[in-house]
Write a structure and sequence with these properties.
There is one protein chain. This protein is α/β, with parallel strands linked by helices. The protein folds into 2 domains: 165 residues, Rossmann fold (3-Layer(aba) Sandwich), CATH 3.40.50.10490; 135 residues, Glucose-6-phosphate isomerase like protein, domain 1 (Rossmann fold), CATH 3.40.50.10490. It is 44% helix and 13% strand. It has a 5-stranded parallel sheet with strand order 2-1-3-4-5, sandwiched between helices. Strand 4, helix 5 and strand 5 form a beta-alpha-beta unit. Helix 2 runs parallel beside helix 6 and helix 9 runs parallel beside helix 12. The longest helix has 23 residues. It is globular, with a radius of gyration of 21 Å.
C-alpha cells in the first residue's frame, strides 16, 4: 500500500516498546491478541468453510428487507455487509444497534441476530421483539442465550467457534462476517461470493507475510504507520462505500486495542463539514494525524476530492494516503481492515498497554447489571 506523508514534529513521549524486540512487548499481550491477528487468514479460511456448510432454509429467501442486530464487533460485520452489497442487493438493509428494532420489521424481514457471546443484552431483546413480529430470524453466535433462543424456537442457527483461547469479538471478525457473505451468496443476494472469498484468503495470506511481527520495522508498513501515529490522535477518512466501513473499523480498533481516541469520517460527506474544521489553531491540528483509505474504483470526482482535501490538510498535519489492495470489493475491504488491525496492535505496544483489556466497557456493564427497570416498565 502506497503512502504519502508530510513530516511533523515527533511525539514528546518515548515509546514503551521496541517493535522489533518481542521481549519488550510480549508481557503486554498475555491474551495473544497479536497471535489472533497473525492467524486471521486461517480464521477467514475456516469461516469460509463454516459458511459453505450452512444451508439457509427456503424461508429466508426473497425478503422485502434485511436487518442485522448486533453491538460492537458483532455489528461491524453488518456494516461491512451493507457497504459490500449496497449497489447489488435489491432490498433495503440496515444495522440495528439498539434494544428496539425498526418499525418496518415484520414477516417479510430477514432478521440476522449477531452476538459473539450470545449474551449481548441489546441483541437479545431486539431478537425477541423481531420474533414477536414474526420476522424470518437467523442467528449467528458462539453460544449463550441467543443459541438457546434459536434452538428452543427451531430458528436457523449458524454456530461459530469461540476459539481456544477464547477470542474477543473484535478479533473474530472473520467468523462473524465471512459466513454471512456466504449466506447472502446462497440466497442470491450477493452473486460471486465464493470467488471473492477465495481471493480474499489468498490476499490476506500474502499481506500477513509483509506485516507480521517478525518483519523488521524498516520493511514493515504496519509498524511504520504505528510509529508515525504514536502520540497522535488518529483520524481515519474513508471514501464512500467499503472504505468508509474500513475507516470505522480502524477507529474502533484504535479505541479498543490502542486505548486512544480516534475518529472516522467519509468522503464526500466530510467535504461539506469536516474540512472547515481544519481551520483550527496550528497546535491542535499538530496533535492529529490523518489516514485516508481509498480504492482505485472510487468515482472520479471522489478521487479529485480526496486529492484536493489531502493537500489542504497536509498544510496542517501529516497525512497518509492508502490505496486498497485486491481486485474484488471483499478482498479490498478485508485487506485494508487487516492492515489496520496490525497497526492498532503495534500502537498498543508503543503505548505500553494490553490490547485485550476493555476496562471501561466492563465497568459500564457491571453497573448496568445492577440497574432496575422503572416501575411499570
Amino acid at each position: 500500500m502506497a503512502a504519502r506523508m508530510k513530516t511533523a514534529s515527533p511525539s514528546r513521549r518515548s515509546p514503551a516498546a521496541d517493535l522489533d524486540n518481542p521481549s519488550s512487548w510480549q508481557k503486554l499481550d498475555p491474551k495473544g491478541m497479536l497471535d489472533f491477528a497473525v492467524d486471521f487468514p486461517a480464521q477467514v479460511a475456516d469461516a469460509a468453510e463454516i459458511g459453505a456448510a450452512f444451508v439457509p432454509p427456503a424461508s429466508l429467501r426473497e425478503p422485502a428487507n434485511i436487518v442485522l442486530a448486533g453491538m460492537g464487533g458483532s455489528a461491524v460485520g453488518g456494516d461491512f455487509l451493507i457497504r459490500l452489497c449496497e449497489h447489488r442487493i435489491p432490498v433495503p438493509f440496515v444495522v440495528s444497534r439498539d434494544y428496539e428494532i425498526p418499525r418496518f420489521v415484520g414477516p417479510d424481514t430477514l432478521f440476522i441476530a449477531s452476538s459473539h457471546s450470545g449474551n449481548t443484552e441489546e441483541t437479545l431483546e431486539a431478537t425477541q421483539r423481531a420474533y414477536r413480529r414474526r420476522a424470518r430470524i437467523m442467528c449467528i453466535t458462539t453460544n449463550g442465550e441467543l443459541a438457546k433462543f434459536a434452538r428452543r424456537r427451531k430458528l436457523p442457527l449458524l454456530t461459530i467457534p469461540l476459539g481456544d483461547p477464547p477470542m474477543p469479538p473484535r478479533a473474530s471478525l472473520g467468523y462473524s462476517f465471512i459466513p454471512l457473505v456466504s449466506v447472502l451468496g446462497k440466497l442470491g443476494l450477493y452473486p460471486g461470493a465464493r470467488s471473492q472469498i477465495r481471493e480474499t484468503i489468498s490476499l490476506l495470506t500474502g499481506i500477513q507475510k509483509r506485516i507480521a511481527p517478525g518483519i523488521p520495522e524498516r520493511r514493515n508498513p504496519a509498524k511504520r504507520m504505528a510509529r508515525s501515529l504514536f502520540g497522535k490522535l488518529p483520524w481515519v477518512q474513508g471514501t464512500a462505500g467499503i472504505m468508509s466501513a474500513a475507516a470505522y473499523r480502524w477507529r474502533c480498533q484504535f479505541n479498543e486495542n490502542s486505548k486512544v481516541l480516534a475518529y472516522a469520517s467519509e468522503y464526500p460527506e466530510l467535504n461539506h463539514n469536516e474540512v472547515v474544521g481544519w481551520e483550527v489553531p496550528a497546535e491542535m491540528a499538530q496533535g492529529i494525524e490523518v489516514v485516508i483509505l481509498c480504492r482505485p474504483e472510487d468515482y472520479y470526482r471522489v478521487r479529485a476530492r480526496v486529492e484536493i482535501t489531502r493537500r489542504m490538510i497536509a498544510e496542517k498535519t501529516r497525512v497518509h494516503l492508502l490505496l486498497a489492495e485486491g481486485k474484488s470489493p471483499l478482498a479490498q475491504l478485508m485487506s485494508t481492515v487487516y492492515l489496520g488491525d496490525f497497526i492498532s496492535l503495534y500502537l498498543a505496544f508503543l503505548n505500553g498497554v494490553d490490547p485485550s483489556t476493555i476496562g471501561p466497557i466492563n465497568v459500564l456493564k457491571s453497573r448496568l447489571a445492577r440497574l432496575k427497570p422503572p416501575s411499570g416498565d
